[in-house]
Design brief:
Elements: E1 3-9, E2 23-28, E3 31-35, H1 41-47, E4 55-59, H2 65-80, E5 87-92, H3 95-106, E6 114-119, E7 126-129, E8 133-139, E9 147-153, E10 159-160, H4 162-167, H5 172-179, E11 184-185, E12 191-192, H6 194-197, E13 198-199, E14 206-210, H7 220-223, E15 228-232, H8 240-246, H9 251-261, E16 265-269, H10 279-288, E17 292-294, E18 300-302
Parallel strand pairs: 3-4, 4-5, 5-6, 14-15, 15-16, 16-17
Antiparallel strand pairs: 1-2, 1-18, 2-3, 7-8, 8-9, 9-14, 10-13, 11-12
Helix pairs in contact: 9-10
Bound molecules: zinc ion (2 copies).
One zinc ion (ZN) binds at residues 62, 64, 142, 212.
């Protein structure tokens, strides 16, 4: 049951020969969530061998080109390969108008339906929930309505030990109760404690995506203790003024947020193409938050599956 993030693009507005504009792919237990869709995202998906057909949910943080220009090409390719499954697209208010206008001009006979889910950008809300994962918006501070996204696994029930089911001949009707934490009473009246019958559930894994944003401590509460935080770091700290002016962050600001939110790992990206050397981003951030990685296109970050009491599996 994987929980991993693939970086498809790590540049900001201008793509470079090494870096595509922003897009991430989260694999949460074999469900695939595309997060932002900068120009060329479909090329990156092919390069990193991710089947287009696996993507049913796309989350767009805001309507700046470097986060959405790739969506239109991707929709066109979905049509060319004969997609039939509904495509769910989540984004800020104006996304519906943008997509419908585009489709009216280029493509009004798609082979599949598009369900557009608009979110309010000024308050946090749960915008998607399935049996495995829930997705919660993180309002960000940027020049246009913008939200990041928190992907969090849903708490799984305790795992019942197969040998215990056989040993005590536990009927099916009692299994659900035991998974919820109840003890079991045998026909002879003996009470078997739940701890003997079950293994603790797996720890809930989480990924928070925050791009684009100025430094904002308001997000800390929402991203507290996540396993992986991605926070944009468009500028080096010497260009702090430029970051403030354009409502972006510096590497040190991203690290400051990670430290205060007590996350396990920080990823930084969305680098401005004005810089020639990206090592400095990582060094600057690590001075504040050592568990920082400056991402490259194609990097994959995995959160392992651990039982609550701490046993890795
Ligand atoms: Zn951007
Ligand atoms: Zn932006």
């Amino acid at each position: 049951m994987p929980f991993s993030v693939t970086i498809l693009g790590s540049s900001s507005a201008l793509p470079t020969s090494e870096r595509f504009p922003t897009a991430h792919l989260l694999n949460a237990n074999e469900r695939f969530f595309l997060i932002d869709c900068g120009e060329g995202t479909q090329i990156q998906l092919r390069k990193f061998r991710i089947r287009l057909g696996k993507i049913n949910h796309i989350f767009i943080s805001h309507l700046h080109g470097d986060h959405i220009f790739g969506l239109f090409g991707l929709i066109s390719s979905f049509n060319l390969i004969g997609r039939t499954a509904t495509l769910h697209i989540y984004g800020p208010d104006q996304i519906e108008e943008l997509i419908l206008d585009h489709l009216e001009f280029f493509q009004n006979d798609l082979s599949f339906d598009i369900a557009i889910h608009k979110f309010q950008h000024h308050r946090s809300a749960t915008i998607h929930k399935d049996t495995n994962v829930e997705v919660i918006t993180i309002p960000l501070k940027h020049r246009v309505p913008t939200c990041g996204f928190l992907f969090r696994e849903r708490q799984a029930p305790r795992n019942i030990k197969k040998e215990m089911v056989e040993k005590y001949e536990i009927p099916i009707r009692d299994i659900v109760k035991i998974k919820d934490g109840k003890d079991f009473k045998t026909n002879e009246g003996e009470t078997i404690p739940n701890s003997e019958l079950t293994l603790p559930p797996f720890r809930v894994r989480s990924y928070a995506y925050c791009s684009d944003t100025a430094y904002s401590e308001k997000i800390i509460e929402l991203i507290k203790n996540v396993d992986i935080l991605y926070h944009e770091a468009t500028f080096l700290h010497k260009d702090e003024d430029l970051a403030a002016e354009t409502l972006h962050s510096t590497s040190k600001q991203a690290a400051g947020i990670a430290l205060k939110a007590e996350v396990r790992k920080l990823l930084i990206g969305h680098f401005s193409s004005r810089y020639k050397n990206y090592d400095t981003f990582e060094k600057e951030a690590q001075e504040i938050f050592p568990e920082t990685t400056a991402v490259n296109d194609g990097d994959v970050f995995t959160v392992s599956r651990i039982r609550e009491k701490g046993t890795a599996v």
